[in-house]
Amino acid sequence: MQDAQDSPTQTPLFLFLMIHKIQKALPIKETTTTEKVKTQFREVSDMYEKHFLREMMKSMRSSVPESGLIKVNSAEKIFREQLDSEYVEKWGERGGVGISDLIYNDLVDKYGERFGLKAKQDKPVGPLQLGEKDSLNIRRNFDKTNQNFSFHFDGIKKESTGSVEAISPWSGLLSKKIQLGADEFFLELNHDNGLSSQIKFRGLLQPLNANDRLNAGDKIGILSPDTNDFFWNLKSQTSPQNQEMSEGNSL
């Protein structure tokens, strides 16, 4: 399979390097309690935000040329550094500038399932039922504003005879069913893991009704043989701030 377009969120380089360094340095064991892990994540996140702010202040100071009228001695330079450090500490006490939260959230996203900070997200088993020799193209986009993933599957080719089945990626309830045309359908599924799937395809739909219960892998329809398009929009049922999106795709 070929991933034709991939546009996930990009972490700034300095944060990527910070996070990588943190992940190597964190003295975390499997037996560490959840609260202790949270405390460690928050401490190192705050520490690296302050480190970044100190370097920023130092860079700003160096960009301002001295007048030459009054020569700055070593004692005054030391005092300025201490004053800048005090500014940084005060900013941290008032919530910082957001870098600490960014690092903390990234650590929770990477290690959250391992240490019980967030619910484990099972990989999806769909939304298309394909064999190992079958192929397709995937165009994936990520909406930063609404924290949604959208997938467009096309160029679907099945090695063996038979139709491509559309299946439920995870277990949950069918919340919405709309017939858009003679053989075109839109479905919305609210999954048990807090995610919601919006699916649009051409073909035959299973005899399903709103509020029907579906298990992961249950067939929801069959794609029309003359179509190569299948659309899947994945979003959180909660607000973007509390969202934990899964990028996993087992197709």
Mind explaining what this structure looks like?
With 251 residues, this protein is an alpha+beta fold. It folds into two domains: 13-111, no CATH class; 128-242, Glucose Permease (Domain IIA) (Distorted Sandwich), CATH 2.70.70. It is built from four helices and eleven strands; from the N terminus they run βααααββββββββββ. β7 and β8 form a beta hairpin.
CATH superfamily of the largest domain: Glucose Permease (Domain IIA)
Instruction: Tell me the count of domains.
Output: 2
- The CATH architecture of the largest domain can be given as Distorted Sandwich
CATH class of the largest domain: Mainly Beta
CATH topology (fold) name of the largest domain: Glucose Permease (Domain IIA)
What value does the Rg take, in angstroms? 25 Å
Q: What characteristic shape results from the CA principal axes?
A: elongated
How much strand content do the residues show? 25-35%
| Mean pLDDT across every amino acid position | 79
Largest sheet: 11 strands, mixed
Tell me the number of strands.
Answer: 11
DSSP helix fraction: 25-40%
By DSSP (H or I, 4+ residues per run), the number of helices equals 4
Cα separation of the termini = 9 Å
